[in-house]
Amino acid sequence: MAQRQSGGAGGGTGGGAPEGSAITGRASFDEVVSRLSSGYRSIGDMVYEVLRQALLSGAFAPGEHLRQEALATAIGVSRLPVRAALLRLDAEGLVEFHPRRGAVVKTLTAEQLVEIYELRDLLETHALRKSMKTMTADRIASLRRNAELLDSEEEGEGFLDVRVRFYRELYDAERNPRLVELIEDLRSSVGRYLLGWRVSGSRSHHGRHTTLVDHVERGDVEKAETALHDHLREVSEGVAKILSGESDREPDSEFPA
Q: Where is the signal peptide (predicted)?
């Protein structure tokens, strides 16, 4: 982890993205630059962290070409640390760096999507079974409160916050921290491709969370697992349509994956 010091790096942010660049109009990237462009020991660490956070937060679209010169101007540094950062991000699997063509934001293939949701199904049904063995009345009450919020709330930042609380409680993150961490990592590996999208007229969360809590409260492991499995299958099919361009979903807020 980079040690921080007071003061900026590279002479400030250099303003927003230059007109005509690959990042024109992406206010979220400017926000990341503004938030992270000062306080790092080295310019290289700062540039790497800015680009990494921008990628993880969806500031760049999958398949988007990242122009080193435009990025350097937006951050307020030379091209050298940008190139070095992109090479690091290539090693992490966030971008694909081509010596002659530059860097491109990595996309999610159909095969990778299938693998991710197969792993999620295995891990989440295991977590559910394990958690139900030690379920308490207090946890059921907490789950029901959050389930009712999820089933009545539109997608967006508030929805995502409640969803995190719900699933951490459902899978008993206190007793199973590593298991829940793995599940959340898999969810995030897909979620960053879906920033800005929602499901129009989807039945993906209307009543689903409350029904799942009903099964859990009754101790019906089979029905609880089936409900969870069906949800993950539905979500994976919806995500596949979004990534293939076959969906009629419109940009608005985040898909409840």
A: none
Pick the CATH number of 4-105 from 2.40.50.140, 3.20.20.80, 3.40.50.2300, 1.10.10.10: 1.10.10.10
- On whether the CB atoms of residues 29 and 23 are closer than 8 A, the answer is yes
Angle formed at CA 92 by CA 91 and CA 98, multiple of 5 degrees: 45
Interhelix angle 157-170/177-191, rounded to 10 degrees, is 150
> 10 with 75: CB under 8 angstroms?
yes
**Burial call 39-52: b when 16+ CB within 10 Å, e when fewer:** ebeebbbbbbbbbb
**Can you list the alpha helix ranges (DSSP code H) found in 133-255?**
137-152, 157-170, 177-191, 208-218, 221-244
Prediction pTM value: 0.66
* Cα Rg of the chain (Å, integer): 21
Distance in angstroms (rounded) separating the CA atoms of residues 116 and 155 = 22
Closest to 256 measured CA to CA, from 140, 185, 158, 169 = 158
pLDDT < 50 positions in the chain: 1-27, 196-204, 249-257
Kindly provide the b/e burial profile for residues 156-193, where b requires at least 16 CB atoms within 10 angstroms of the residue's own CB: eeebeebbebbbbbbbbbeebeebbebbbebbebbbbb
Pairing of strands 38-40, 4-8: antiparallel
The two tokens of residue 228 are 């969870």
Asked if the 110-244 domain carries CATH number 1.20.120.530, the reply is yes
